[in-house]
Every structure is written in structure tokens, then in C-alpha cells.
Amino acid sequence: MIYDLLASYKDYLLETYRPATAETYYKRLSTLFEGQSISNTASKLDIEKVLEKLSTIKHRNYFSQSKNAFLHFCEFQDISLSADTLGNIKELEEVTRKKYRKLDPIDYTQVNTKIKHIKNKKLKLCYQVIVATGLRVSELAGISASDCLISGDEITFHFTGKGGKQEAVTLQAVEYPRLYQGVREFIEKTPSNRKLFYSANYLQTKAKELGFKCHDLRRAYAKIEHKKCRSKAQVMKKLRHSSIKNTNIYLRSKVKI
């Protein structure tokens, strides 16, 4: 019944999104459908009940995930939503609010020193690659040896970014010679179908033990790149942001360089 339908929906999502994103949408939709008896064709779906569930969500990020999960489900089941329904969803989203977390100041110099003293070479390389490329930890964790192209004095990492978009970033030997050599050695000795780096969960856990968050390294990357070029537009492009507002948030973050 509903569980079979949701399982098929999750398979549908995995055709476009990373496993973590597909899992998030799957969970959000499961919550929206609680209390409904839905057949394999979703013919008994009560959209008003879905709207009621959406109306109880107060934080914007959670609402956006739930909304996207529902809209993808409608595409999956060829359900056409009326203009009134889409308008109601938009109105509900407009009254949500962002959930801010109070972040403690992070001194990148201290964090960088801790990373340099990590004895586990692979773990050290993971964090250093994030700082050198601006990769999100989930993007880094998904990269296999076959996703890496060594050409001359640079390594190009191909990966699935936000929204399932295929993207690439480059690590250059001229800028990070020791890191380049270390990563190249790992690529050459790793089977092509194996992941090159550690899982996102492992990296986040180890980072917490060292007193920082993996995303702090991406924020540090933003500030380092801005010091180099003094152009927010260029930093926005390197972070792969869709809006300069997101880039400004990174540049105003409490990561001290």
C-alpha cells in the first residue's frame, strides 16, 4: 500500500538526486501522508490534508523540503495541482521563518593547525580538499576514484551537486603542491569503483571531535578566495551559489581568517 508507493517514489528520486536528498524528501513526504490510506495509484490522496500538514510547519527550510517532496510526488504520479492549491502552498511558505542557529566564532588558524596534526593521512586530506576546493562534505564523500581526472598538474573532481546537477572543481598543483601529490597518490591506488574519501557522517563526527564543523571549512574557503580576488561575483561562482545573498552570508560568517 502506501509503503510500496513511497518505496517506488524513493527509487524515482534516486534517478535524479543524491541518496541523502532522496532520503530527506522520502521522510518529509511520509510525514505529510501520515493518517492517509493511499493505494498504489494515489487515487485516494486528500490534498487538503496535505495542506493542513504543511500549515503546521513553521521553519522555512523544513517547509521547502516538504513542499519539494510533495511536488516531486505529484510529478511521479502525474497529479495536476490547481492554481488555487499552488497559490495556497506559496502563501503558507511566505509566512514561515528561517531557523537561525547561533554559531560560535571559529579561528581558522587554529583549525588548520589541528588538521595538519591529524595522523590519519586520508582524514587529513579530506579536510584539506574541502578548504582547497570549497566542496560540500556530502559532495566530497560521493566522489569515487573514477570521478577524478588527472591532467597535467591538476586534478578535476566530477560530482553530483545540489539538486542533482553534475558539477566539477579543480585542484591545482601550483597552488597546493603537497595536497595535490597526496590526493594523486590516493587516486592511483584506489580501485576506480571505490569512494576516494570518507563518508560525510564520519567526517562530520571527527570534525566535531576536533572542535569545528565541516561546513566551517567551506566558509573558510569562501573568505580565503575573497581575499585572493576581492570579487564577490567570483566567490559566488566558485561556491556554485545561485544568489549573491548566500555568498554574503558566507563572507559574514564567524570564521576568522
What does this structure look like?
The protein is built from 13 helices and five strands. The chain has 257 residues and is mainly α. The chain has a three-stranded antiparallel sheet with strand order 2-3-4, covered by helices on one side. Strand 3 and strand 4 form a beta hairpin. Helix 7 (121-133) packs across helix 9 (177-189), helix 7 crosses helix 11 and helix 12 crosses helix 13. The relative contact order is 0.10.
Give me the secondary-structure topology.
Blueprint: H1 2-14, H2 19-32, H3 47-55, H4 60-76, H5 83-94, E1 106-107, H6 108-116, H7 121-133, H8 137-141, E2 148-151, E3 154-160, E4 166-172, H9 177-189, H10 200-209, H11 214-229, H12 232-239, H13 244-251, E5 255-256
Parallel strand pairs: 1-5
Antiparallel strand pairs: 2-3, 3-4
